[in-house]
Amino acid sequence: MPSNSTIDYQLLVDNLVTAILLVDHNLNIYYLNSACEALFDLSSLRAKGQPVLNILHRSNDHFKTHEALLNTLNKGQSYTRREAILSVNFKDVHVDYSVSQLQSSIQQAPLLLIELTPIDRMLKIAKEESLSQQHQVTRQLIRGVAHEIKNPLGGIRGATQLLARSLADPQYNEFTDVIISEVDRLRNLADTMLGSRQLPSYSEVNLHEPLERVRALIVNQTKNRIKITRDYDLSLPEINADRDQLIQVMLNISVNAVQAMTENKAFYQDHSPSLCLRTRIQRLVTINGVLHKSTIRIDIEDNGPGIPEELLEAIFYPLVSGRANGTGLGLSIAQNIMHQHSGMIACQSIPGKTTFSLYLPWESNHAAK
Ligand SMILES: Nc1ncnc2c1ncn2[C@@H]1O[C@H](COP(=O)(O)OP(=O)(O)OP(=O)(O)O)[C@@H](O)[C@H]1O
Ligand SMILES: [Mg+2]
């Protein structure tokens, strides 16, 4: 057991997964650890000295937060609130939190110690892990089916060509042409279902470069009809990744966003379509059961009609599509590429705001793969 003098308490508190807030006797924020900064997307500098009620209390909340905090501060009675919804930076955060009194040796008056556990994240981790396993099984199945479809196609195509040549009456060539073009369409579909057979080729990538590439492609494709905003954190580190595969991921998601915004005529009439590309560092993200201290987050956000609720749970499955002529492979391929990079894609959608967030761990080392 190390002696007290060998423990760096600051380091310890800043590495806790639990978010911690210290509040002074005026109910102003005195300190928040790194997990708390990440939870609220709020820097210590901005938060210090702010009334904690700005975070803990919402105007429509029936719970008497102010009285409860004063009670703990003055009488030392701890309490816990479950499934509270806090509003920070215009973002709702679902948490369980416990408040207790802390007698500090430095401060004369007692402080309040608030420990917060995000429940969203726990639910999300459980859901994502089981989804990821299901996806792997489904992908194997899809690859098997695609393989079986592809096998006889070469034979059908060859035989049809022979047939076409031996037809005495050229008017029947119209029918053999239909067979050949449908066989080709099926072969392209089976190829997409099988996915890329190329092994990823990793190199140091500045993620803004593929993102800018995708932006240029979208500008070109939509002939400037869509407003594209960029909100980049230019201090992002480079990461070891397959640049071309990341372009495919970003493109599949951006194309979906463009389609959602422009194909829905009723929606398009009243809104001007807009796409936002955002990059951030996001601390403490669990991907496939591994907690990463630092990740890069890329948001691709559109103001389209949103993903229908009944589809939202299933969009990453292959062959799930909400579009009349969609194959439903874009997102499944994108998620697969992200898994190969030890990353993931998450999605949140309400009408008017759909965000696909790509998470890539940047302390991870692909040499280990
Ligand atoms: N930004 C978005 N807004 C609304 N719906 C979306 C958005 N992104 C995806 N979707 C829905 O998710 C479905 C699945 O997308 P996915 O890219 O996997 O397949 P697809 O676009 O239908 O076909 P493909 O990409 O293979 O041509 C889409 O059909 C659409 O219904
Ligand atoms: Mg698509």
From TrEMBL:
PAS domain span: 5-76
Single annotated GO MF: hydrolase activity
Domain called Histidine kinase: residue spans: 144-364
Enzyme class label: transferase
Gene3D superfamilies: 1.10.287.130, Histidine kinase-like ATPase, C-terminal domain, PAS domain
InterPro entries: HATPase_C_sf (IPR036890), HATPase_dom (IPR003594), His_kinase_dom (IPR005467), HisK_dim/P_dom (IPR003661), HisK_dim/P_sf (IPR036097), PAS (IPR000014), PAS-like_dom_sf (IPR035965), PAS_fold (IPR013767)
Catalytic reaction equation(s): ATP + protein L-histidine = ADP + protein N-phospho-L-histidine
EC number(s) given by UniProt: 2.7.13.3
Keywords of the record: ATP-binding, Hydrolase, Kinase, Nitrogen fixation, Nucleotide-binding, Phosphoprotein, Transferase, Two-component regulatory system
Record keyword Kinase present: yes
GO biological process, one term: regulation of DNA-templated transcription
UniProt function note: Member of the two-component regulatory system NtrB/NtrC, which controls expression of the nitrogen-regulated (ntr) genes in response to nitrogen limitation. Under conditions of nitrogen limitation, NtrB autophosphorylates and transfers the phosphoryl group to NtrC. In the presence of nitrogen, acts as a phosphatase that dephosphorylates and inactivates NtrC.
Protein name as catalogued: Sensory histidine kinase/phosphatase NtrB
Source organism of the structure: Acinetobacter rudis CIP 110305
